[in-house]
Amino acid sequence: MILKRNEPDAAKRARATLSAIYAWLIGNGRAEPNPVVGTIETAQRRSAAGLLSPDEIKAALKACRDDDFGRIVRSRTRTGQRREEVAGMTRAELDLASGIWRLPGQRTKISLLLDVPLSRASTCSQRSSPVLAGRSCSVGAPPDSRDS
What we know:
This protein is mainly alpha-helical. The protein folds into two domains: about 45 residues; about 70 residues, hpI Integrase, Chain A. The protein has six helices and three strands. Strands 1-2-3 form a three-stranded antiparallel beta sheet, with no helix packed on it. The chain is elongated and about 65 Å long.
């Protein structure tokens, strides 16, 4: 039924959940055979990493406006960095002459200083993006305003 609606990921999750329930029932002596054993696993539609296809990337970039959100999306596709890392990017982290974004360890998932190479398009974009009064972030909201 789930597969008929073209939802292979949902079908895979449903099968795994049902199998886990029966494993618990069997472990507690409330069931004997696991009816999921021997059923066919569905293929996953895309990798767990959630990678976008080239056409999806083109569509997303085409839909971007010239606002903070659009700049964040474009910066993410150019650098491969996480949303919060890009949204919190500051001018002080950017070395546009060298084409390097020096991301401090306290803002990375791996807690290490990260030097992110910037493409020519990223460097030009950062040079031309407006500097707004009272904002330290290059794109997105200042970190302290996101909490309120």
